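Journal club prep, notes for RB
We'll compare a predicted complex against what the paper describes. Inputs for the S-adenosylmethionine case:
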Amino acid sequence: MTGAWGAAGFEAAFAAAGPIPGWLTRGQARDLYDAGTAVPPGGVVVEIGSHHGRSAVVLASALPEGARLVAVDPFPDDWRYGAAGTEQEFRAHTRRAGVAGAIELRVATSAQVRADWSGRLDLVYVDGKHDFWTVRDDLGWADLVAPGGSVFVHDAFSSLGVTTALLRTVLPSRSLRYTGRTGSLAHLRVAPPSWADRARLLAQLPWWLRNLVVKVLLRLRLRPLARALGHHDAADPY
Ligand SMILES: C[S@@+](CC[C@H](N)C(=O)[O-])C[C@H]1O[C@@H](n2cnc3c(N)ncnc32)[C@H](O)[C@@H]1O
C-alpha cells in the first residue's frame, strides 16, 4: 500500500492511521505525509519514537517504491505511555495498514541506533523521549540528513524538554532552519538559516508558555481556565 497516490493518498493513509492510538493530529499527519512523498525512490526516513505506529503508518504510506522507514523505539515497559505489548501493537497496526514491508523496526534507543549508523537520510521525525538531553541527542540525526531534507519535531512547543533542546540546537546552528509549525509539530530544513528564521522560532515562545500553562491547568482539573486560554480539548495541546 506504499506509494504517493496523489490527493487520495493522504485520505487513505489517515483512514488507516487515525484509529491507531497516538498524539499526531490530522494536520500534522498531512505534513509528514507530504514530506514522505518528496522522498526519492530508494530514500531513507528515520522515525524516533514509534509507539503504536500512528505516525509510522502515515510516513510509510507516503513513500515511493524502494524507499524505507527505519522506525526506532526501545519499547520500554517503564516509559510513561509504554506497556508490555506495545511492540506487538506496532507490528499488528503496520501489517494491517499494508505498510510493514516498507518499515524496518529497530527495537533500541535512538542513541544506540545512531552510534553505528552510516549513510545519508532524506527525512527524520523526532518523537521519542521528551527530556532535554535525549532530544538534544536525537537532533544529532539532523547532521545525517541530505541538504534540503526535512527534520520534523513533535511536541516542539508543548514540552519543556523538547522546546529547550530545540532552541539550544537550532538557534546557534548554521545548517538547520526553522520553517514553521503545525500545532506543536516543528518543521526544520537542512539549509543555512537567516536571522529572520531564528526570530520566527523565538516568536513561538509565547505560544509555548501558553501551552505549558494549559497543561498545568488540565492537571489541576481547571478546564474552564484552559478554555479561557482558547484550549477546548480535554487532551494536552499538541
Ligand atoms: C510520543 S510516543 C511516539 C508516538 C508516535 N510517533 C506516533 O505518532 O504514534 C514516544 C515513543 O518514544 C519511545 N522512546 C522512549 N525513549 C526512546 C529513545 N531513547 N529512543 C527512541 N524512542 C524512545 C517510547 O517508547 C514511545 O513509544
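Talking point for the session: Residues 61 and 113 are 23 Å apart (CA to CA).
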